[in-house]
Amino acid sequence: MFKFMIKCESASKKSLANVLVSCNCHPSMAMMIDDRLKVWEDRNQSHVHVVPAFAPYYDPLAEMHKFWYKKLSSGVLYI
Length: 79
Fold this sequence. Notes:
alpha+beta; 23% helix
């Protein structure tokens, strides 16, 4: 499996021909994973599997525990 990222300029679109230049894979056998379909050329969009965009995990409860741990470990607790 090939692991790489392709950056696309805002005016251009990604194409399988450009992505698979260094691979020994026919474009009809390729599947691309991306969070945006519109950045791919129309003829290649059937080969794109769209996934949700990355969102960093945030846990408010963990942040609260971290806050209280800092307060308790410093020896000063304001109530």
